[in-house]
Amino acid sequence: MKILNSWLNEFGSFGTDTEKLAAAMTNLGLAVESVTSVGTPVKGVVVAKVIRTERHPDAAKVHRVYVDAGDGVELHVWCGAFNMKPGDLIPLATLGTTMPDGRVITPRGILGIESHGMLCSGIEIGLDADADGILILPSTLKLGADVFEALGVTADTVFDLDVTRNRPDCNGYLGVARDLGAKLGVKVSAPALDKAKKGSARSLKVVISDKEKCSRYNATVMSGVVVTNSPVWIARRLVNSGMRPINNVVDASNLVMLELNQPTHAFDADKIANAFKIRCAREKETLVTLDGQTRELVSTDLLICDGKDMPIGLAGVMGGQSTEISSTTRVVALETAFFESSGVASTANRLGLRSEASLRFERGVDPYGVDDAVSRFAALLRESCPKLVVHAKATDGIEKSLPLKQRVVGLRIAQVNRVLGTKLSAKSVSTLLAKIGFVTKATSTGKIVTLKIGVPSWRPDCQSEIYLVEEVARHYGYENLGKIVPQSTMHGRLSPMQQRRRELREVIVGLGVSEAMPNPFLAPGDLTKSGLSEELAIRLANPLVFEESVLRTSLRPGLLKAISYNLSHRNTNIGLFEIGHVYPARQDQSTGELPDEYEVLCIIAAGVNSEVAMDWWSQLSVTMGFGAQLDQKSVEPGYHSTRSASLRRGKQLLGSVGEIDPLVLARHDINVSVACLELNLTVSLNEIPKVSTAKSVSRFPRSDFDLAFSLPQNEPASSLLKVLRQASGPELVDILLFDIYRAPGVDQDLSATSRSLTFRIQLQAKDRTLTDAEVSTARQRCIDAATKLGAQFRTV
Amino acid sequence: MSDQSVVTAMTQTVELAQNSALTAIAATKDLSAVKTLTADLNKKDSPLNTLKSELGKLTSVDDKRTMGQLLNTASQSVNAALLARSTELESLEISARVAREAMDLSEFATRRRRGHSHIVTQATQRLEDVFIGLGFQIAEGPEVETDFYNFEALNMPKSHPARSEFDTMFLEYGDPGSILLRTHTSPVQIRVMQTWQPPIYAIMPGRVFRRDTPDATHMPVFHQIEGLVIDRGITFAHLAGTIEAFTKAFFGNEFTSRLRPSFFPFTEPSAEFDIRRADGEWIELGGCGMVHPNVLISGGINPEEFSGFAFGFGIDRMAKERHNVEDIREMYTNDLRFLRQF
Description:
The complex is a heterodimer of chains A (about 800) and B (about 350). Chain A has about 800 residues and is an alpha+beta fold. In chain A, a hairpin with a 5-residue loop joins strand 14 (about 285-290) and strand 15. Chain B is α+β, with helices and mostly antiparallel strands and about 350 residues long. Classes of the chains: A alpha+beta (about 800), B alpha+beta (about 350).
């Protein structure tokens, strides 16, 4: 909502301290988006008349305009706009004029022919927003006069307010002035109403058939109308409010709307067959609206129809073309109505047709503002139609569904003070509210002091007590409510799971990988491309773009894209991780309303193999206490089937470790191996490892021995390790696999043969030095057990 | 009786032996030479030891004492010289070794890189830490939500016009229009109210979704942090005080804050909160207000017994402004050249 300072001052003596006014509006919740100066006079711009225009054969884009600036001397001006004709009055910036953009007008012309000034568009001299052509001035102006003086334009300030949804009244000057007046102690008065005597009775029939969508419809007939241009001051106000002047009738209607937040619509009374019928549209019924578009309607759209039941307007949204005000209109039928907000909203939404009127009906207008709006319209139209007659006996259809004139809402003083932390008395609360038209109807005293507050009809938002508390707070001043830091009775901390997540991040960052945040939306086919099933992927019902229409069920596709991106930009040491949610559909939707959302960790790096992935896993499992069995027999899809393992605990799948399937890599144009580790954090982080119990370190010497075995490739090293662990006896401290040897050439085909594994076994007793005999017995047990497994003992 | 001539002769011999030993010590070139020499000088037949064994030949007790003392002094000076020489040579050898072992550490300065946390994560953790200091705990909730938690429980029933302002993304899951990507972190408020008992001092950071075309300052997927306090006797002044305490703790003591009236369906009274930099410029930060009684009721809390406030703002913008990121989209390209700066 644009508020002109000069116009605002017609509602009360607010003055011109625009900084103070802007601050007061901000403190009231009327956020001031911008404060701009308009209409600042440009000295040297005068009213001139076009005498004739002339083309020059060598100048295609400009023409020569001869003008008279009042002294009878013919001046020549080059001009690039062609919208003027001889006789038009236009603004001429004379030589030496400094334009608002800093340019100084000089005689410099083209083709060696001088230009004695410049013809101005509205935007060039800040008079309107139209840059399309030269501003054509009203024909009544005196030649040679200063354009700004002649138009009565003075410098003004425009406040652009961002009016919140709960303040429909502030979509009009009166609402803003009322709030501001209360805050600043300025007396506010409504704009001047029409004082002329009513003419002869002239009524139109009004039939409201949908009483929910329309609960009030006033049709007032006004004759003696001469359709013309609005007076300059009216046109100026519309322009500065961001609206286009049309003609005196439409402009008066728009001005009333801006002042009182009450949209009205003027029909040519000769074209409506003497009646209005307000009904819902029939399916596929059509109406040509004012903008020339044919609108196809549905049965929830509310129509204004004429006496022959023909549609002539889309209620609250836009009028119809057939009954539009034209130059021949002599009698006007003015509609001033109250349409239910959600109906207007749904029609405007469906048609994508947002008008100043629909916006106001959607937010809510004052159901009792009709009479003033009709009278104010007449007063404004009378400025250009002195013979205007407002006919008596206007029809005012009022239905029972019309909201009450004054809703009564109870307000407990204790509640005001409880919410705001104030110690306000009933009297001061009542005074604060009275200033903005909230009337205290009664005060019940006793244990609980309650005010019965009559809420004015222009505040549909104040439905219950808490809204009145806000009104008290606004006018008491948020800045006066104090600042107290509450003493939390809680111990501020991370939960154990959150603490573990932070530790995990530290460990991961220590691995040398950086955190990525890929888009959680995938393109259809992205999962397949990564070797994953699309079956459980949920689609967006209204995606922004097709490429982002699937919710991820795995972090891998996003990170693979990121790897591919970094490779293509020739970045080095590419290692990324993400901790984020995945959202697969539930297999069985009866187990919960929401998808099976959980948190996952994925670490991924290019140019390294599964050895690195295993290194990540062992680091994480040691530092975080994550536990899982390595299962190389059932590798998850999308992984390299002989270089990966799933991480399981019993039947539960916790994650995967290894390398990405070469086929997946090829589809992503990745030509190096990619190591990957995935872990379900919703499970793993919530398992808090037990606190370790200290074991005293033995004071006796440790006995180490090394054993080397040749083990077939298809037998995992972990099996041998397990066997050795069991066989080495109770004095075992640790077993290290410290050397793996493959005969040269063997790693061409890893699956073909066996490899040599060397273990160091460390034994130590708590209470004594182990004897050579004990150690050699243990050693033999290890050899025997390994042999039984199929390993072949090799002498070291 | 002292035999002066024998004593004189012996004294000369001792001095000779001592001097020759000291000369030999001074001439040693390395520690092993000192070791060999030490062994030689300690042999029974070394000149000084030979002289010691000859003491018995003296008849006078006085002479024996005099010569004994002389020999002892000589031995001590030789031993001291040996120790000094070996210490000297050892330190020379270590100096030589140190010189030999020189390493240019700058060769290794950039070899192994630690990874980097995303700046949104860093900002989130900084925010969490400030609120933990103010006595808050951290709550989390699902990113896919029901219409109930995202709207209805937050005082936005089905037909509420404010819903259209959220540009919601719906999922093809469950009943049409019933399951969506949360448009704000506020649904977690309801979940916290339903599962925790007051007093509640909680913040709720997380990922949120709006159907917004990406540009330099907007992403359809972004992050918010939400705060919720519910206790007995909580007033608007506590809200303003918390915002002020947060502003100073997070941005610095030179910052102040203000609340100005605004509108949100889930709070009443509602406010926007702005912070003011030391240079006097106000910056809009987020929205807040006293929790609407209807919202408390949705969360199963009696609004006549408890009151509370809530506030929320964007995290991405905090990260963007802290690091002067020009275009917010750059934060989500996952380009390591970008990620490694922070």
